[in-house]
């Protein structure tokens, strides 16, 4: 059977998965007794997510204002910045149990739920930001770390005066440091860029022989989560970027990006995941498909998995995986950027 949406009133203590200790923060959302089954609204105008390295000053100003307003919402408003960050903690650090399965944790990483869960998470995050600035066309920027022109932290996130700034990042990886998808620690920048492209080629194309290789393995009601079940993209570039941004030197546990419970506290997280989400779209619709002719997973346990989120009007909604398989139906697309890894055979 599919994993059911968590029961918010049974949300409990979360665990720091980097060290196994109980966390002393409460990452449970406010409770609501009304749950609405979410219907995707009709799309009147496509939102275009831009590359974070290419946005205009006007865009930066809007984004900055939206995040600032999110931070100023009342602490118990489910759309508040910290509440949004805690969504990640609740779904990833064992605060929720699988309904009807005793104390078996719900864990949306390391499986075929990875892409769908984060897609819905960003979807509502983006709508909340748009609502806060009265701009329904607002679209999150993606951190284009798969292209040499995007392989540094995007400038707008590293200005200490900006609401997009987070001080809990690896200080040695601020620009101009080049993102290192293989975590090689090499100081030879050209070598790192070449290695990044090789990694992208292999996790997007070469390494996948079926849809689960890319998406992640099945995860059904009653299953225990296993790190071995992550798909190529989750395991590879996705995790490396978390570890590369997080501060493992001066923070106790890789905060913010290097730890599940705190990752969502860094505004950069949502742009990182916007690019991860873009990888899913590229893989589905734009990549040569000779090796994986059918990119759809049709298993109903996958399609009917449900999650809960608060929408831009602070209403609790239940969403399912089957409604998030096509980003265009969800009303957003990505700025077209070339894919230098496409033919980057090692
Ligand atoms: Cu939910 Cu990038 O992790």
TrEMBL record:
Binding positions for Cu cation A per the UniProt entry: 88, 109, 118
Superkingdom: Eukaryota
Domain Tyrosinase copper-binding per the UniProt entry, residue ranges: 109-126, 266-277
Cofactor annotation: Cu(2+)
Cofactor note text: Binds 2 copper ions per subunit.
GO molecular function: catechol oxidase activity; metal ion binding
Species of origin: Erythranthe guttata (Yellow monkey flower)
Record location of the 2'-(S-cysteinyl)-histidine (Cys-His) cross-link: 92-109
Disulfide bonds: 11-28, 27-89
UniProt KW keywords: Copper, Disulfide bond, Metal-binding, Oxidoreductase, Thioether bond
Residues the record lists as binding Cu cation B: 238, 242, 273
Family statement drawn from the similarity comment of this UniProt entry: Belongs to the tyrosinase family.
The protein's name: Tyrosinase copper-binding domain-containing protein
Disordered: annotated span: 222-242
GO biological process terms, semicolon-separated: pigment biosynthetic process
């Amino acid at each position: 059977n599919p994993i059911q949406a968590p029961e918010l009133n049974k949300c409990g203590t979360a665990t720091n998965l980097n060290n196994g200790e109980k966390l002393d923060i409460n990452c449970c959302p406010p409770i609501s007794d009304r749950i609405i089954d979410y219907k995707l609204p009709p799309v009147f105008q496509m939102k275009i997510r831009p590359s974070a390295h290419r946005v205009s000053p006007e865009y930066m100003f809007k984004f900055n204002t939206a995040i600032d307003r999110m931070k100023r919402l009342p602490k118990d408003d489910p759309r508040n910045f910290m509440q949004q960050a805690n969504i990640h903690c609740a779904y990833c650090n064992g605060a929720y149990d699988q309904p009807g399965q005793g104390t078996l944790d719900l864990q949306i990483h390391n499986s075929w739920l990875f892409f769908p869960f984060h897609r819905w998470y960003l979807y509502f995050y983006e709508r909340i930001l748009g609502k806060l600035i009265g701009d329904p066309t607002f679209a999150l920027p993606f951190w284009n770390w798969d292209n040499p022109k995007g392989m540094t932290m995007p400038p707008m996130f590293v200005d200490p005066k900006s609401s997009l700034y987070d001080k809990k990042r690896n200080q040695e990886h601020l620009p101009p440091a080049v993102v290192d998808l293989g975590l090689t620690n090499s100081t030879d920048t050209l070598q790192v860029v070449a290695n990044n492209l090789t990694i992208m080629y292999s996790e997007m194309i070469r390494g996948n022989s079926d849809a689960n290789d890319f998406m992640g393995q099945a995860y059904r009601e009653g299953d225990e989560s296993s790190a071995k079940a992550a798909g190529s993209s989750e395991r590879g570039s996705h995790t490396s970027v978390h570890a590369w941004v997080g501060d493992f030197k001066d923070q106790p546990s890789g905060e913010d990006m290097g730890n599940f419970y705190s990752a969502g506290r860094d505004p950069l997280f949502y742009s990182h995941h916007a690019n991860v989400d873009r990888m899913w779209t590229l893989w589905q619709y734009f990549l040569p498909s000779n090796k994986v002719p059918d990119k759809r997973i049709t298993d109903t346990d996958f399609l009917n998995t449900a999650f809960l989120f608060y929408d831009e009007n602070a209403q609790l909604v239940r969403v399912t995986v089957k409604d998030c398989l096509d980003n265009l139906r969800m009303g957003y697309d990505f700025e077209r950027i070339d894919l230098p890894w496409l033919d980057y055979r090692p």
